[in-house]
Amino acid sequence: MGKSLTGTALAVLFPAMMSYAAGGATIKITSSAFQEGGNIPSKFTCDGSDTSPPLHITGVPAGAKSLVLIADDPDAPGGLFTHWLIWNIPPQTSSIPEGNATNGMQGTNDFGKSGYRGPCPPPGTHRYSFKIFALDRELDLRPGAKRAEVDKAMKGHVVAQGELIGRYARKK
């Protein structure tokens, strides 16, 4: 029964996840601070200086007009929790230095603030996803827009995407 339920969940979730990218093209997003699936150093969390990690982006399609960066926690007790939201990043951007927001419009995260707020989970290990999307246009949204507004504005305009996942568990 466990395999059947897992298979059903994947059958439902996979198309929803892939609905953003029409062509299925991928962008590579990496960090020199942690590896894919690795532990995020406490420096980038509420237990440290709560600064954003350095990110590197490659493989943006030539026709992209803008990028969107979303960092979230899919394991949050109340459901998906957004930590960082930036759109209209210039498509030629290849890195976002540590502690910087890069050029683009900042949205309101689920802490109710603009800008990056790092992992700060309740007990247990949580996954944190840094997603990059290449769009065929810029988004016409006001600064401080929320995640639902960005998701809605992106729909049908994603030409490629990538994801970097890190993990974090508080030691306190």
Write the layout of secondary structure elements.
Blueprint (H helix, E strand, L loop, with lengths): L1 H17 L2 E6 L1 E3 L24 E4 L7 E8 L7 E9 L5 E2 L8 E2 L19 E10 L11 H8 L3 E11 L4
Parallel strand pairs: 1-9
Antiparallel strand pairs: 2-3, 3-6, 4-5, 4-8, 5-7, 8-9
Polypeptide structure, described:
There is one protein chain. This protein has one domain (2-168): Phosphatidylethanolamine-binding Protein, CATH 3.90.280. 15% of the residues lie in helices and 32% in strands. It contains 2 helices and 9 strands. Strands 1-9-8-4-5-7 form a 6-stranded mixed beta sheet, covered by helices on one side. A hairpin with a 7-residue loop joins strand 4 (66-73) and strand 5. The termini are far apart.
